[in-house]
Amino acid sequence: MLQSADKTSALSDEQWLMREASKITSALGEMFSPICEVVLHDLMNPEHAIIQIENNLSGRSVGDSATELGLARIVDSNFPEVLSNYANSFSDGRPVKSTSIGLKNKSGKYIAAICLNLDISYLKSVSAHLDQLTRIKSDAAPVGEHLTRRPTDVSAKILAFAAGRNRDPRALTSDEKSEILRELVDEGALERRGAAETIATVLGVSRSNIYYYIKKIQNS
Q1: pLDDT tens digits, 17-54
Q2: Which among 32, 135, 168, 204 has most CB atoms closer than 10 A?
Q3: What is the dihedral of CA 127, 133, 138, 141, to 10 degrees?
Q4: Is residue 174 part of a domain?
Q5: What does residue 103 show for φ and ψ, rounded to 5 degrees?
Q6: Are residues 129 and 75 in the same domain?
């Protein structure tokens, strides 16, 4: 215990703060995995500012330089300490909600920043699909109906499959689309009326593409 205390006391204020910030970064990353990227920036080394990145969604790497916002903090100690929920985007165009927290030393100089980048593209997609899936017409059926067995919802299954890969269903790779279609074929979901059209809509492809994938699966 004494040895641990000695190691802590040997740290400079900046090193101690960076160590504590690293623990916070790890915890936030684990808490909001997999749709929130959490990045720790060392503002004392702007050319290689990124020293930790959890749930990498932006494609950046440890050792990359500071962003424009980070550089602004470095040159201006009066820059806001916390910027919450501002609009941002990844390099591939996905919309992001970001929050940036600047950390100062005792003299009031910014030395680090923790940034959270929430990928809201998938959440928006899920919201839109859920709205469409739950929309009903009260007078659409001429008679009442009670279903004794509820078939698997192909839309929900595809959304869950894409969510497990932190992607919009339309952004799935060809191999991933083949994988989920194989599961649906094995379950007999494609035998239901209108299933191919529903799947095509959710995946953002044409119905002919769905039949192409099915034929590919059957021949494999």
Answers
A1: 999 999 999 999 999 999 999 999 999 999 999 999 99
A2: 168
A3: 170
A4: yes
A5: -120, 125
A6: no
